[in-house]
Design goal:
single chain; alpha/beta; nine-stranded mixed sheet; two-stranded parallel ribbon
């Protein structure tokens, strides 16, 4: 999959690849994946495009607040021959004309207390001021169909807040997986699968270890990159 990225600005990273693999593993238990898919904060479009590529019965919808990424989401949809409907604006403000079977997102999750970049594009893409966790989960619950699936990744240190918000808005925590930089370090990322109005018990998957040593990716991570098969090109975007 060829993906255009901004030369100066936020580019997708390994979190998106890991989340895509987590989504694929979680959907293995379902025989017929179809319906409306929403990529929230689509950026250059990579996450939603990967899911739509591998689950071709899904209809891709993208929501993006920044004009530069609205352009890239559409451009990358076109060059990869995956049709998509783009909603322009903040996810919290958009009035959607449908409900969704699946919502996916790699949202901005750096805490607002962290020292921020001076680059406005990076601020919006990285820090949760633009999409506060509680508001984010509340709106997802509103646009998901009953039984709908919600996949996202977040800062592992904020897991307690995630669980509280999911429960408040009738999103049952179905599965989670922690990502560790290496086997000796604490988890830096958590990937979450929740389902609206479900009562299933939570499954905790084996942790994903990124590096076997300081330089080499683990075999699991190499397999994920092979699964995604993405190739990026950085371009100037006005």
């Amino acid at each position: 999959m060829l993906l255009y990225q901004p030369k100066d600005g936020y580019c997708y990273n390994s979190d998106t690849h890991f989340l895509f693999n987590f989504i694929c593993e979680s959907l293995k238990n379902f025989k017929n994946i179809k319906g409306e898919l929403l990529d929230i904060g689509s950026g250059s479009g990579v996450l939603g495009l990967l899911v739509a590529r591998d689950f071709f019965k899904l209809n891709l919808n993208q929501c993006e607040i920044q004009e530069v990424f609205q352009f890239l989401s559409q451009k990358n949809s076109n060059i990869n021959k995956i049709s998509s409907k783009l909603y322009r604006g903040s996810f919290l403000d958009v009035d959607f004309d449908k409900e969704f079977e699946i919502c996916v997102s790699n949202p901005p999750f750096y805490h607002s207390n962290v020292i921020k970049s001076e680059n406005e594009c990076l601020k919006i893409a990285r820090y949760n001021n633009s999409l506060p966790l509680n508001d984010f989960i509340k709106k997802v619950s509103k646009v998901l169909k009953s039984g709908g699936k919600f996949f996202f990744c977040y800062d592992a240190k904020q897991l307690s807040e995630i669980i509280i918000a999911l429960k408040e808005y009738r999103l049952n925590l179905e599965a989670l997986q922690f990502v560790h930089p290496n086997k000796d370090k604490d988890a830096s990322l958590v990937m979450v699968y929740a389902r609206k109005n479900s009562k299933s018990l939570t499954k905790v998957l084996h942790p994903l270890i990124v590096f076997e040593n300081s330089e080499e990716f683990s075999q699991n991570v190499q397999n994920i990159y092979n699964l995604c098969a993405t190739h990026s090109l950085k371009v100037e975007v006005e």
